[in-house]
Amino acid sequence: MRKSVFGIAVILLILLCIALLLAMGAGSVMIPSEVVWQHVVNGFEGENAQVSRILFDIRLPRSLFAAMAGAALGLTGLLMQTISQNDLADPYILGVSSGAGAGAVICIVTGLSTMLLGYGVYIGAFAGAALATVSVLLLSGRNDNPLRLVLMGIGVSAIFSALTMFAIYAAKDEAQVRSAMFWLLGSLTGIQWKVVPVMMISLAVLMLFCWLYRHELDIMLLGSEEARSLGMSYKRLQRLSVVMASVSAAVVTSIAGVIGFVGLIVPHMARRIGRPDHASMLWITVLLGALVMVVADALARSLFRPEELPIGILTSFLGAPVFLWIIWRQYAR
Amino acid sequence: MHAKDILLETRNLSLNIGGKDVLREVSARFSENQITAIIGPNGSGKSTLLSFLTRKRVVGETGGTSGEVFFRGNPLADVSSQKFAREAAVLPQFHHTILDFYVEDIVLMGRFPFKEKFQDYTNEDREKTRMAMEKAGVSHLALRKAGGLSGGELQRVMIARTLAQDTDLLFLDEPTNHLDVKHKLALMHLLRGCDKTVVAVLHDLSLVAQYTDYVVAMKEGKVFATGKTEEVLKPDILEEIFEVPFLRFEHEGKIYLNY
């Protein structure tokens, strides 16, 4: 990590810690940050057992998950932008979200969601995402043209979206439709400790991949021809990156639904405040993604108290103007 | 010329794309530690010939090919692209610019072929990068972003990346593109001064006359003439290739061409 980037990373880390502390206090029951701090220091043992329970069983796993999911979405967004050589790529560009959406909605509508130990929706969503990714990889075949890859992703996405809408249309009762729509919006409601380890492992693997391949990913930006003349096997890295990014996006999406714009804008913001090489981008993107998501989740919980806004709506509302501003600046010429 | 002096050779190399013969039975030799220019009118197959020498196209793998390409006496197809990247650096005619990257990071990429898997760049790599930037005259641009550079500055950055690769063999496709007179001469002077095998596609025949040892002259996909520069750059040969009249005069051992 470069010195200048190191400083930015430290600042972001401090901001992230502050945001986590404040976010833990926010929600239908507001808890002052001193109380949150006391709980953090004392290992979540406090005088008020109910407050301790809210903090440890509900808000801590949820905030940790939000941070890790934000980091993962930022990093997958970065990978997808590198793979596709396109600034407009996001974690879902190769059809992960449509696949996951179709899988989840079909599970909900057919009632499969109640089976499989209650993990039915997660498994359905993940299977759908995997199916979409495999389809894109098979369709792109030996060709290494990134534009072709993206267009294949758009085509596969369209098929799965149609399938999702058909499943919703064919649903038998209102409750199922509501539940399906809610899933599609993206939400961190009901995140429990049991999903935290999966998210943690998935993020760790993704970060390790990005770190090990940081120089290769830089070279990848040169395009297949120049990468090959520098002795890199472009197609192999392209495939590997698609798989890593898709699995990671699929894990987040299976658990929390489609959370838009985080994966698109975070890499853009990171590029502006740090250095554009992948070694630097890795740290800034992870920290910034986590920060953005923790703040967004806190807002989602507290803006319309005691009601909660699905986080996907909020990130789109906040993210779209930021995105427009970035494009406005970047394409000023 | 002894056989051991030949670094690269094509024998009866042909390429047919969609019924059109882009290369026809091209047999050409490229000598070690010499500068060889590939010249010819637009569409005569210069860049295509170069693409076979740089392994961008490979006989057998690329459709419509026949013939052979040898590198150090062995088929070039047998050399892996990673191994070849340690032997040869390529300056493409059109390059992909990563707009928001810093110049020094782009030049550093020239060191990539020498890295083992997952190995980081070392101080030696950074030193070679620094020296390459100095040679190409872009040291002052090191901390600028590629997106803000002029065409000529960018071309020199790409030349620096090629030099950072520090290979014995250099392939340059129209390296003087975008360069002003001063930088054109500086580049050719640099190539003259380094002990490398250089294969360059060049349009500027004055530069060819003054700075190269050998010429491969192409026309309509065929080798029209090949040999020492002073033997090929004769008005009667050039007039047939380029279809315009040429005047040649010599002054203090240098060849000057006028058209």
Summary of the model, kept short:
The complex is a heterodimer of chains A (333) and B (259). Chain A contains 14 helices and no strands. Chain A is mainly α.
The whole-number mean of residue pLDDT values of chain B reads 92
Q: What is the total number of structural domains of chain B? A: 2
Overall strand count of chain B: 12
Sheet bearing the most strands of chain B, described? 6 strands, mixed
Number of domains of chain A: 1
Greatest contact between two chains = A-B, 20 and 29 residues
The CATH topology name of the largest domain in chain B reads Rossmann fold
Helix content of chain B: 25-40%
Can you tell me about this structure?
The longest helix of chain A is centred in the first third of the chain and has 36 residues, at 49-84. The model of chain A has no long low-confidence stretch (mean pLDDT 90). Chain A has one domain (3-330): ABC transporter involved in vitamin B12 uptake, BtuC, CATH 1.10.3470.10. Chain A is built from 14 helices and no strands. The radius of gyration of chain A is 20 Å and the shape is globular. In chain A, helix 3 (49-84) runs parallel beside helix 8, helix 4 packs antiparallel against helix 5 (120-140) and helix 4 packs antiparallel against helix 7 (174-185). Chain A is mostly helical and 333 residues long. Chain B has 259 residues and is an alpha/beta fold. Chain B has 2 domains: 3-87 and 168-258, P-loop containing nucleotide triphosphate hydrolases (Rossmann fold, 3-Layer(aba) Sandwich); 97-166, no CATH class. Chain B has helices at 46-53, 81-85, 103-108, 123-135, 151-164, 181-193, 205-211, 229-232, 235-242; strands spanning 6-17, 20-31, 35-39, 65-71, 74-75, 88-91, 169-173, 197-201, 214-219, 222-228, 247-251, 254-258. In chain B, strand 4 (65-71) and strand 5 (74-75) form a beta hairpin. The longest helix of chain B is centred in the middle third of the chain and has 14 residues, at 151-164. The two termini of chain B are 32 Å apart. The model of chain B has no long low-confidence stretch (mean pLDDT 92). Classes of the chains: A mainly alpha (333), B alpha/beta (259). Chains A and B meet through helix 9 and helix 10 of A and helix 2 of B.
